[in-house]
Protein backbone atom coordinates (compact mmCIF):
# COMPACT_ATOMS: atom_id res chain seq x y z
CA UNK A 1 0.00 0.00 0.00
CA UNK A 2 1.18 3.46 -0.82
CA UNK A 3 2.01 5.44 2.27
CA UNK A 4 0.65 8.94 2.44
CA UNK A 5 2.52 11.57 4.33
CA UNK A 6 -0.42 13.00 6.22
CA UNK A 7 1.56 15.92 7.53
CA UNK A 8 2.06 16.88 3.87
CA UNK A 9 -1.28 15.71 2.57
CA UNK A 10 -3.22 17.57 5.24
CA UNK A 11 -2.28 21.24 5.37
CA UNK A 12 -1.88 22.06 9.03
CA UNK A 13 -0.28 24.29 11.59
CA UNK A 14 -0.47 21.77 14.42
CA UNK A 15 2.74 19.90 13.62
CA UNK A 16 0.89 16.72 12.67
CA UNK A 17 4.11 14.95 11.72
CA UNK A 18 5.43 15.00 15.28
CA UNK A 19 2.58 12.99 16.81
CA UNK A 20 2.73 9.37 15.70
CA UNK A 21 -0.39 8.32 17.61
CA UNK A 22 -2.46 11.08 16.06
CA UNK A 23 -1.07 10.31 12.64
CA UNK A 24 -2.17 6.70 12.98
CA UNK A 25 -5.62 7.77 14.07
CA UNK A 26 -5.93 10.04 11.05
CA UNK A 27 -4.68 7.34 8.70
CA UNK A 28 -7.51 5.21 9.97
CA UNK A 29 -10.15 7.94 9.73
CA UNK A 30 -9.19 9.76 6.53
CA UNK A 31 -10.27 7.01 4.05
CA UNK A 32 -13.62 6.80 5.84
CA UNK A 33 -14.04 10.52 5.42
CA UNK A 34 -13.29 10.20 1.69
CA UNK A 35 -15.86 7.40 1.41
CA UNK A 36 -18.40 9.54 3.23
CA UNK A 37 -17.69 12.48 0.92
CA UNK A 38 -18.25 10.27 -2.14
CA UNK A 39 -21.44 8.71 -0.76
CA UNK A 40 -23.05 11.73 0.92
CA UNK A 41 -21.22 14.77 -0.37
CA UNK A 42 -22.40 16.64 -3.48
CA UNK A 43 -24.38 14.26 -5.70
CA UNK A 44 -22.97 15.75 -8.91
CA UNK A 45 -19.94 17.67 -10.17
CA UNK A 46 -17.45 15.61 -8.16
CA UNK A 47 -15.08 15.44 -11.12
CA UNK A 48 -15.47 19.05 -12.26
CA UNK A 49 -12.94 21.77 -11.61
CA UNK A 50 -14.40 24.23 -9.11
CA UNK A 51 -12.85 27.58 -8.26
CA UNK A 52 -12.47 27.14 -4.50
CA UNK A 53 -10.59 28.73 -1.68
CA UNK A 54 -8.51 26.47 0.51
CA UNK A 55 -7.25 27.45 3.94
CA UNK A 56 -3.49 27.29 3.75
CA UNK A 57 -2.23 29.48 6.54
CA UNK A 58 -3.40 31.48 9.51
CA UNK A 59 -1.65 34.75 8.71
CA UNK A 60 -3.61 37.98 8.77
CA UNK A 61 -2.94 38.57 5.08
CA UNK A 62 -3.90 35.71 2.85
CA UNK A 63 -5.06 32.73 4.90
CA UNK A 64 -6.73 31.29 1.83
CA UNK A 65 -5.64 30.30 -1.63
CA UNK A 66 -8.05 30.33 -4.63
CA UNK A 67 -7.71 27.88 -7.49
CA UNK A 68 -9.50 25.24 -9.50
CA UNK A 69 -9.80 21.96 -7.65
CA UNK A 70 -11.87 18.81 -8.01
CA UNK A 71 -13.81 18.48 -4.77
CA UNK A 72 -12.60 15.00 -3.75
CA UNK A 73 -9.06 16.38 -4.06
CA UNK A 74 -9.77 19.34 -1.80
CA UNK A 75 -7.08 19.59 0.84
CA UNK A 76 -9.02 19.56 4.08
CA UNK A 77 -6.60 21.04 6.56
CA UNK A 78 -6.30 21.49 10.30
CA UNK A 79 -5.73 25.02 11.48
CA UNK A 80 -5.80 26.67 14.85
CA UNK A 81 -5.71 30.43 15.24
CA UNK A 82 -2.52 31.68 16.88
CA UNK A 83 -2.22 31.15 20.62
CA UNK A 84 -2.80 34.38 22.53
CA UNK A 85 0.13 35.06 24.88
CA UNK A 86 -0.68 34.45 28.55
CA UNK A 87 -4.33 33.73 27.81
CA UNK A 88 -6.43 33.15 30.95
CA UNK A 89 -9.79 31.54 31.58
CA UNK A 90 -12.16 34.47 31.22
CA UNK A 91 -15.17 33.40 33.28
CA UNK A 92 -16.58 30.92 35.76
CA UNK A 93 -14.89 29.17 38.67
CA UNK A 94 -11.46 29.13 37.07
CA UNK A 95 -11.47 32.75 35.99
CA UNK A 96 -7.92 34.10 35.91
CA UNK A 97 -6.22 30.67 35.71
CA UNK A 98 -3.96 30.00 32.73
CA UNK A 99 -5.98 28.30 29.97
CA UNK A 100 -5.69 24.53 29.66
CA UNK A 101 -3.64 22.89 26.93
CA UNK A 102 -4.97 19.46 27.89
CA UNK A 103 -8.50 18.42 28.78
CA UNK A 104 -9.14 18.79 32.53
CA UNK A 105 -10.24 15.35 33.75
CA UNK A 106 -13.36 16.57 35.54
CA UNK A 107 -14.68 18.26 32.38
CA UNK A 108 -13.74 15.57 29.91
CA UNK A 109 -17.26 14.26 29.32
CA UNK A 110 -18.81 17.70 29.00
CA UNK A 111 -16.10 18.95 26.66
CA UNK A 112 -16.31 15.88 24.49
CA UNK A 113 -20.04 16.36 24.25
CA UNK A 114 -19.63 19.98 23.12
CA UNK A 115 -17.12 18.98 20.45
CA UNK A 116 -19.27 16.09 19.23
CA UNK A 117 -22.45 18.17 18.99
CA UNK A 118 -20.64 20.90 17.06
CA UNK A 119 -18.91 18.28 14.90
CA UNK A 120 -22.19 16.54 14.08
CA UNK A 121 -23.66 19.65 12.47
CA UNK A 122 -20.81 20.00 9.96
CA UNK A 123 -21.28 16.86 7.83
CA UNK A 124 -25.04 17.08 8.40
CA UNK A 125 -25.39 20.25 6.35
CA UNK A 126 -23.34 18.75 3.51
CA UNK A 127 -25.76 15.82 3.47
CA UNK A 128 -28.75 18.16 3.52
CA UNK A 129 -27.42 20.13 0.56
CA UNK A 130 -26.12 17.29 -1.56
CA UNK A 131 -28.69 17.48 -4.36
CA UNK A 132 -28.70 21.25 -4.80
CA UNK A 133 -25.85 21.28 -7.32
CA UNK A 134 -28.17 19.84 -9.94
CA UNK A 135 -30.42 22.92 -9.86
CA UNK A 136 -28.00 25.78 -9.26
CA UNK A 137 -29.20 29.13 -10.66
CA UNK A 138 -25.68 29.98 -11.92
CA UNK A 139 -22.08 28.81 -11.87
CA UNK A 140 -21.39 31.52 -9.29
CA UNK A 141 -24.00 30.00 -6.94
CA UNK A 142 -22.85 26.49 -7.71
CA UNK A 143 -19.35 27.43 -6.69
CA UNK A 144 -20.58 29.05 -3.47
CA UNK A 145 -22.55 25.93 -2.57
CA UNK A 146 -19.47 23.78 -3.02
CA UNK A 147 -17.32 26.24 -1.09
CA UNK A 148 -19.70 25.97 1.84
CA UNK A 149 -19.75 22.18 1.50
CA UNK A 150 -15.98 21.66 1.46
CA UNK A 151 -15.57 24.04 4.37
CA UNK A 152 -18.18 22.22 6.44
CA UNK A 153 -16.09 19.16 5.62
CA UNK A 154 -13.05 21.00 6.96
CA UNK A 155 -14.97 21.93 10.11
CA UNK A 156 -15.64 18.24 10.60
CA UNK A 157 -11.89 17.70 10.30
CA UNK A 158 -11.34 20.41 12.89
CA UNK A 159 -13.59 18.69 15.44
CA UNK A 160 -12.22 15.25 14.61
CA UNK A 161 -8.72 16.56 15.16
CA UNK A 162 -9.71 17.65 18.67
CA UNK A 163 -11.41 14.32 19.38
CA UNK A 164 -8.48 12.25 18.18
CA UNK A 165 -5.77 14.37 19.69
CA UNK A 166 -7.27 15.00 23.12
CA UNK A 167 -9.92 12.37 23.87
CA UNK A 168 -8.12 9.09 23.30
CA UNK A 169 -10.09 6.02 22.43
CA UNK A 170 -13.56 7.41 23.01
CA UNK A 171 -12.58 10.38 20.86
CA UNK A 172 -11.72 8.01 18.03
CA UNK A 173 -15.04 6.22 18.46
CA UNK A 174 -16.90 9.52 18.38
CA UNK A 175 -15.00 10.45 15.20
CA UNK A 176 -16.35 7.31 13.55
CA UNK A 177 -19.87 8.01 14.79
CA UNK A 178 -19.73 11.43 13.13
CA UNK A 179 -19.46 9.64 9.80
CA UNK A 180 -22.09 7.05 10.68
CA UNK A 181 -25.06 9.25 11.58
CA UNK A 182 -27.04 10.56 8.60
CA UNK A 183 -29.12 13.66 8.22
CA UNK A 184 -32.80 12.72 8.23
CA UNK A 185 -32.13 9.01 8.80
CA UNK A 186 -34.90 7.33 10.80
CA UNK A 187 -32.56 5.00 12.72
CA UNK A 188 -29.44 7.07 13.00
CA UNK A 189 -30.28 10.75 12.61
CA UNK A 190 -28.02 13.73 13.20
CA UNK A 191 -28.10 15.02 16.76
CA UNK A 192 -30.01 18.29 16.29
CA UNK A 193 -33.43 18.79 14.73
CA UNK A 194 -32.65 21.48 12.16
CA UNK A 195 -29.92 19.24 10.75
CA UNK A 196 -32.40 16.50 9.93
CA UNK A 197 -34.68 18.76 7.89
CA UNK A 198 -34.61 18.74 4.11
CA UNK A 199 -32.99 21.57 2.16
CA UNK A 200 -35.11 21.03 -0.94
CA UNK A 201 -34.39 24.14 -2.98
CA UNK A 202 -32.08 27.12 -3.29
CA UNK A 203 -34.26 29.49 -1.31
CA UNK A 204 -33.99 27.00 1.56
CA UNK A 205 -30.24 26.89 1.05
CA UNK A 206 -29.96 30.66 1.36
CA UNK A 207 -32.23 30.67 4.42
CA UNK A 208 -30.19 27.84 5.93
CA UNK A 209 -26.87 29.63 5.41
CA UNK A 210 -28.36 32.85 6.75
CA UNK A 211 -30.19 31.49 9.80
CA UNK A 212 -28.71 28.09 10.64
CA UNK A 213 -25.07 28.85 9.86
CA UNK A 214 -25.58 31.89 12.05
CA UNK A 215 -26.50 29.63 14.96
CA UNK A 216 -23.15 27.99 14.20
CA UNK A 217 -21.49 31.38 14.42
CA UNK A 218 -22.98 31.98 17.88
CA UNK A 219 -21.96 28.54 19.13
CA UNK A 220 -18.44 28.95 17.74
CA UNK A 221 -18.12 32.34 19.40
CA UNK A 222 -19.13 30.82 22.74
CA UNK A 223 -16.72 27.92 22.32
CA UNK A 224 -13.99 30.32 21.21
CA UNK A 225 -14.19 31.66 24.80
CA UNK A 226 -13.40 28.22 26.19
CA UNK A 227 -10.70 27.72 28.78
CA UNK A 228 -9.68 24.63 26.81
CA UNK A 229 -7.33 26.51 24.52
CA UNK A 230 -7.15 24.12 21.54
CA UNK A 231 -10.95 24.32 21.24
CA UNK A 232 -10.86 28.10 21.49
CA UNK A 233 -8.20 28.40 18.79
CA UNK A 234 -9.96 25.92 16.51
CA UNK A 235 -13.25 27.77 16.74
CA UNK A 236 -11.65 31.15 16.16
CA UNK A 237 -10.28 29.94 12.86
CA UNK A 238 -13.57 28.33 11.83
CA UNK A 239 -15.28 31.68 12.31
CA UNK A 240 -13.23 33.21 9.51
CA UNK A 241 -14.69 30.65 7.09
CA UNK A 242 -18.17 30.78 8.58
CA UNK A 243 -18.46 34.46 7.66
CA UNK A 244 -18.56 33.52 3.98
CA UNK A 245 -21.39 31.04 4.56
CA UNK A 246 -23.57 33.74 6.07
CA UNK A 247 -22.56 36.10 3.27
CA UNK A 248 -23.87 33.51 0.81
CA UNK A 249 -27.17 33.43 2.69
CA UNK A 250 -27.57 37.15 3.13
CA UNK A 251 -26.66 38.09 -0.43
CA UNK A 252 -28.59 35.12 -1.81
CA UNK A 253 -31.81 36.29 -0.20
CA UNK A 254 -31.03 39.91 -1.18
CA UNK A 255 -30.71 38.82 -4.80
CA UNK A 256 -33.97 36.85 -4.72
CA UNK A 257 -35.82 39.82 -3.20
CA UNK A 258 -34.18 42.20 -5.68
CA UNK A 259 -35.21 40.11 -8.67
CA UNK A 260 -38.79 39.75 -7.42
CA UNK A 261 -39.12 43.50 -6.89
CA UNK A 262 -37.66 44.29 -10.32
CA UNK A 263 -39.99 41.84 -12.04
CA UNK A 264 -43.05 43.18 -10.18
CA UNK A 265 -42.14 46.73 -11.12
CA UNK A 266 -41.51 45.89 -14.75
CA UNK A 267 -44.90 44.16 -14.92
CA UNK A 268 -46.66 47.05 -13.20
CA UNK A 269 -47.77 44.94 -10.24
CA UNK A 270 -48.59 47.17 -7.28
CA UNK A 271 -49.72 44.51 -4.80
CA UNK A 272 -46.83 42.22 -3.79
CA UNK A 273 -49.30 39.85 -2.13
CA UNK A 274 -51.01 39.09 -5.45
CA UNK A 275 -49.22 35.76 -5.45
CA UNK A 276 -50.60 34.31 -8.69
CA UNK A 277 -49.64 37.39 -10.71
CA UNK A 278 -46.15 37.53 -9.21
CA UNK A 279 -45.51 33.83 -9.69
CA UNK A 280 -46.55 34.09 -13.32
CA UNK A 281 -43.44 36.25 -13.79
CA UNK A 282 -41.19 33.34 -12.85
CA UNK A 283 -40.05 34.87 -9.57
CA UNK A 284 -40.68 33.99 -5.93
CA UNK A 285 -43.36 36.16 -4.31
CA UNK A 286 -42.49 37.97 -1.09
CA UNK A 287 -45.15 36.19 1.04
CA UNK A 288 -43.55 32.85 0.17
CA UNK A 289 -40.11 34.20 1.06
CA UNK A 290 -41.62 35.25 4.39
CA UNK A 291 -42.93 31.71 4.97
CA UNK A 292 -39.52 30.20 4.33
CA UNK A 293 -38.05 32.73 6.72
CA UNK A 294 -40.57 31.70 9.40
CA UNK A 295 -39.57 28.09 8.96
CA UNK A 296 -35.81 28.46 9.04
CA UNK A 297 -35.73 31.02 11.83
CA UNK A 298 -37.94 28.91 14.10
CA UNK A 299 -35.94 25.73 13.38
CA UNK A 300 -32.75 27.63 14.15
CA UNK A 301 -34.10 28.98 17.46
CA UNK A 302 -34.55 25.38 18.58
CA UNK A 303 -30.80 24.86 18.22
CA UNK A 304 -30.19 27.03 21.27
CA UNK A 305 -31.85 24.47 23.53
CA UNK A 306 -34.03 25.17 26.54
CA UNK A 307 -34.14 28.77 27.69
CA UNK A 308 -33.35 27.72 31.24
CA UNK A 309 -30.62 25.10 31.39
CA UNK A 310 -28.41 23.76 34.16
CA UNK A 311 -26.10 22.26 31.52
CA UNK A 312 -25.42 25.72 30.16
CA UNK A 313 -24.80 26.98 33.71
CA UNK A 314 -22.40 24.11 34.41
CA UNK A 315 -20.46 24.67 31.18
CA UNK A 316 -20.09 28.34 32.09
CA UNK A 317 -19.02 27.67 35.67
CA UNK A 318 -16.53 25.11 34.44
CA UNK A 319 -15.04 27.65 32.04
CA UNK A 320 -15.58 25.49 28.96
CA UNK A 321 -18.27 27.53 27.14
CA UNK A 322 -18.65 31.27 27.54
CA UNK A 323 -21.04 33.93 26.34
CA UNK A 324 -21.03 35.66 22.97
CA UNK A 325 -18.12 38.15 23.13
CA UNK A 326 -17.53 37.24 26.78
CA UNK A 327 -14.30 39.22 27.04
CA UNK A 328 -16.09 42.40 25.93
CA UNK A 329 -18.90 42.13 28.49
CA UNK A 330 -18.56 44.50 31.41
CA UNK A 331 -19.51 42.41 34.43
CA UNK A 332 -17.90 40.00 36.91
CA UNK A 333 -17.98 37.01 34.48
CA UNK A 334 -19.29 34.92 37.38
CA UNK A 335 -23.01 35.68 37.25
CA UNK A 336 -23.51 34.42 40.80
CA UNK A 337 -26.16 36.99 41.70
CA UNK A 338 -27.17 38.35 38.30
CA UNK A 339 -30.55 37.81 36.65
CA UNK A 340 -31.58 37.73 33.02
CA UNK A 341 -35.06 38.23 31.53
CA UNK A 342 -36.35 35.03 29.97
CA UNK A 343 -39.39 34.74 27.71
CA UNK A 344 -41.81 32.33 29.31
CA UNK A 345 -45.35 31.18 29.10
CA UNK A 346 -47.26 32.74 32.00
CA UNK A 347 -51.01 32.17 32.25
CA UNK A 348 -51.27 31.70 28.51
CA UNK A 349 -49.17 34.73 27.60
CA UNK A 350 -45.58 35.23 26.45
CA UNK A 351 -43.93 37.21 29.23
CA UNK A 352 -40.45 38.21 30.36
CA UNK A 353 -39.52 36.67 33.69
CA UNK A 354 -36.24 37.29 35.53
CA UNK A 355 -34.25 34.09 36.00
CA UNK A 356 -30.78 33.52 37.47
CA UNK A 357 -28.44 34.66 34.68
CA UNK A 358 -26.37 31.49 34.98
CA UNK A 359 -29.18 29.17 34.00
CA UNK A 360 -30.45 31.63 31.37
CA UNK A 361 -27.32 31.49 29.19
CA UNK A 362 -29.03 29.73 26.29
CA UNK A 363 -31.67 32.46 26.29
CA UNK A 364 -29.03 35.14 26.30
CA UNK A 365 -27.16 33.57 23.37
CA UNK A 366 -30.44 33.24 21.50
CA UNK A 367 -31.15 36.94 22.09
CA UNK A 368 -27.71 37.81 20.71
CA UNK A 369 -28.53 35.61 17.74
CA UNK A 370 -31.85 37.34 17.11
CA UNK A 371 -30.14 40.73 17.10
CA UNK A 372 -27.59 39.44 14.63
CA UNK A 373 -30.35 38.05 12.38
CA UNK A 374 -32.17 41.37 12.35
CA UNK A 375 -29.21 43.18 10.74
CA UNK A 376 -29.35 41.41 7.39
CA UNK A 377 -33.11 41.72 7.32
CA UNK A 378 -32.76 45.51 7.31
CA UNK A 379 -30.96 45.17 3.97
CA UNK A 380 -33.67 42.99 2.46
CA UNK A 381 -36.37 45.37 3.59
CA UNK A 382 -34.42 48.31 2.20
CA UNK A 383 -34.50 46.66 -1.24
CA UNK A 384 -38.27 46.24 -1.01
CA UNK A 385 -38.75 49.78 0.22
CA UNK A 386 -36.53 51.28 -2.50
CA UNK A 387 -38.59 49.45 -5.08
CA UNK A 388 -41.62 51.27 -3.67
CA UNK A 389 -43.46 48.32 -2.12
CA UNK A 390 -45.15 48.31 1.26
CA UNK A 391 -44.09 44.91 2.48
CA UNK A 392 -41.78 44.06 5.31
CA UNK A 393 -40.04 40.77 6.04
CA UNK A 394 -40.16 40.11 9.77
CA UNK A 395 -38.86 37.57 12.27
CA UNK A 396 -41.71 35.58 13.83
CA UNK A 397 -42.32 35.63 17.56
CA UNK A 398 -40.18 33.15 19.54
CA UNK A 399 -43.31 31.21 20.50
CA UNK A 400 -44.03 30.43 16.84
CA UNK A 401 -43.46 26.85 15.58
CA UNK A 402 -41.15 25.63 18.31
CA UNK A 403 -40.16 22.06 19.15
CA UNK A 404 -37.76 22.79 22.01
CA UNK A 405 -37.99 24.85 25.17
CA UNK A 406 -40.70 26.89 26.81
CA UNK A 407 -43.08 27.00 23.82
CA UNK A 408 -42.80 23.48 22.51
CA UNK A 409 -46.24 22.38 23.68
CA UNK A 410 -48.27 25.35 22.50
CA UNK A 411 -49.22 26.86 19.16
CA UNK A 412 -48.77 30.51 18.35
CA UNK A 413 -49.15 32.79 15.37
CA UNK A 414 -46.04 34.56 14.00
CA UNK A 415 -47.22 37.55 16.07
CA UNK A 416 -47.08 35.45 19.24
CA UNK A 417 -50.81 35.08 19.81
CA UNK A 418 -51.56 31.69 21.34
CA UNK A 419 -54.00 29.55 19.37
CA UNK A 420 -55.49 26.08 19.77
CA UNK A 421 -54.55 22.98 17.77
CA UNK A 422 -57.52 23.25 15.43
CA UNK A 423 -56.69 26.84 14.50
CA UNK A 424 -53.04 25.94 14.03
CA UNK A 425 -53.87 23.08 11.72
CA UNK A 426 -56.26 25.22 9.74
CA UNK A 427 -53.96 28.21 9.39
CA UNK A 428 -50.37 26.91 9.44
CA UNK A 429 -50.26 26.97 5.62
CA UNK A 430 -50.56 30.78 5.83
CA UNK A 431 -47.35 30.93 7.83
CA UNK A 432 -45.18 27.99 6.78
CA UNK A 433 -44.41 26.78 3.26
CA UNK A 434 -47.15 24.44 2.03
CA UNK A 435 -46.48 21.61 -0.38
CA UNK A 436 -47.97 23.79 -3.12
CA UNK A 437 -45.45 26.53 -2.27
CA UNK A 438 -42.70 23.92 -2.38
CA UNK A 439 -43.93 22.70 -5.77
CA UNK A 440 -43.93 26.22 -7.15
CA UNK A 441 -40.38 26.89 -5.96
CA UNK A 442 -39.29 23.50 -7.28
CA UNK A 443 -40.73 24.42 -10.68
CA UNK A 444 -38.27 27.35 -10.86
CA UNK A 445 -35.26 25.23 -9.95
CA UNK A 446 -33.84 24.58 -13.39
CA UNK A 447 -30.06 24.62 -13.66
CA UNK A 448 -28.23 27.45 -15.39
CA UNK A 449 -24.68 26.49 -16.34
CA UNK A 450 -23.67 29.10 -18.94
CA UNK A 451 -21.01 31.47 -17.67
CA UNK A 452 -22.43 34.80 -16.56
CA UNK A 453 -26.07 33.66 -16.84
CA UNK A 454 -28.62 33.55 -13.99
CA UNK A 455 -31.97 31.87 -13.43
CA UNK A 456 -35.10 34.01 -13.84
CA UNK A 457 -35.76 34.21 -10.10
CA UNK A 458 -32.45 35.64 -8.86
CA UNK A 459 -30.35 38.74 -9.64
CA UNK A 460 -26.64 38.51 -10.44
CA UNK A 461 -24.32 39.30 -7.52
CA UNK A 462 -22.85 42.78 -7.23
CA UNK A 463 -19.27 41.50 -7.19
CA UNK A 464 -17.64 38.20 -8.06
CA UNK A 465 -15.73 35.84 -5.81
CA UNK A 466 -12.03 36.72 -5.53
CA UNK A 467 -12.81 39.84 -7.63
CA UNK A 468 -13.55 37.76 -10.69
CA UNK A 469 -15.58 39.29 -13.54
CA UNK A 470 -19.26 38.50 -14.11
CA UNK A 471 -18.65 35.91 -16.82
CA UNK A 472 -16.03 33.99 -14.88
CA UNK A 473 -16.23 30.22 -15.20
CA UNK A 474 -16.55 29.35 -11.50
CA UNK A 475 -17.18 25.70 -12.31
CA UNK A 476 -15.81 24.10 -15.45
CA UNK A 477 -18.68 22.22 -16.95
CA UNK A 478 -16.74 20.47 -19.73
CA UNK A 479 -14.68 17.85 -17.95
FE1 LIG B 1 -19.30 24.84 9.89
FE1 LIG C 1 -21.14 27.05 7.90
Protein traits:
479 residues, globular, 7% strand, single chain, mainly alpha, 6 strands
The helicity comes to 40-55%
Report the uncertain regions. none
Give average pLDDT, whole number: 95
Overall number of strands:
6
The 3D shape can be described as globular
Cα Rg: 23 Å
Order of helices and strands: HHEEHHHHHHHHEEHEEHH
Please report the distance between the alpha carbons of the first and last residues.
Answer: 29 Å
Q: What class, by secondary structure content? A: mainly alpha
- Adjacency order of strands in the biggest sheet: 1-2
Structural description of this entry:
The chain has 479 residues and is mainly alpha-helical. The protein has helices at 6-9, 20-40, 108-128, 139-166, 168-180, 202-224, 229-266, 275-279, 286-302, 310-318, 361-386, 421-431, 435-444; strands spanning 49-55, 64-70, 339-346, 349-356, 411-412, 418-419. A hairpin with an 8-residue loop joins strand 1 (49-55) and strand 2 (64-70). Helix 2 (20-40) runs antiparallel to helix 4 (139-166), helix 2 packs parallel to helix 5 and helix 3 packs parallel to helix 5. One fe (ii) ion binds at residues 152, 213, 216, 242, 245.
Structure at a glance:
The protein is mainly alpha-helical.
Amino acid sequence: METIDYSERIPNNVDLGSDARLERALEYWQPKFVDWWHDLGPAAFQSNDVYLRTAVDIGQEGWAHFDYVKMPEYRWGIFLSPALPDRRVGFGEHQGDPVWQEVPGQYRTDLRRLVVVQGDTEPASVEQQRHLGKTAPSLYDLRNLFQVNVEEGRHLWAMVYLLQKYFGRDGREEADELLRRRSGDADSPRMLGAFNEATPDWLSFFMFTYFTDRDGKMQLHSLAQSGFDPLSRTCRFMLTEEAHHMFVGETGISRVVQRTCEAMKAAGISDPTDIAKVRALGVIDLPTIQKKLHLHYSLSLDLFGSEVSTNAANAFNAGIKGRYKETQIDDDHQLKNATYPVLKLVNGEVKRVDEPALTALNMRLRDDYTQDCAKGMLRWNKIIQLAGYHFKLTLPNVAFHRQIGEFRDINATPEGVLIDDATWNKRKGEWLPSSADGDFIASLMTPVTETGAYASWISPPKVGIDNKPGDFEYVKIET
